[in-house]
Write a structure and sequence with these properties.
Elements: H1 2-23, E1 32-38, E2 41-48, E3 51-59, E4 65-69, E5 76-78
Antiparallel strand pairs: 1-2, 2-3, 3-4, 4-5
């Protein structure tokens, strides 16, 4: 009797998990890119399944740079300015 109840609960759990999986949007391999002009800058927003994870800013005069998401709260940091990141600076050769 206990085995039958256990098997029934396992089957219900399996069916419920299939129902939850059917409700989630499918994962895609390609990001959604939105390009817009803002003043003298071109801004490209990269989203994956609705989550904004990177922004590329290309000024009219200057080098482009990336803003990368650091958390899910909408906080971004420049990719070329890693605060708190220790970069190794070993001396390989000297003359």
């Amino acid at each position: 009797m206990t085995r039958m109840i256990g098997r029934g609960l396992a089957a219900l759990t399996l069916i419920a998990s299939f129902a939850v999986m059917a409700q989630e949007p499918p994962l895609t391999g390609e990001p959604d890119v939105t390009i817009r002009q803002e003043g003298d800058k071109t801004i490209e927003e990269y989203r994956m399944n609705g989550f904004l994870y990177a922004i590329k800013v290309t000024p009219k005069n200057g080098a482009p740079y990336f803003l990368v998401a650091v958390d899910d709260d909408g906080n971004f940091t420049r990719a070329d300015n890693p605060n708190g990141l220790r970069i190794p600076s070993w001396k390989i050769f000297e003359w």
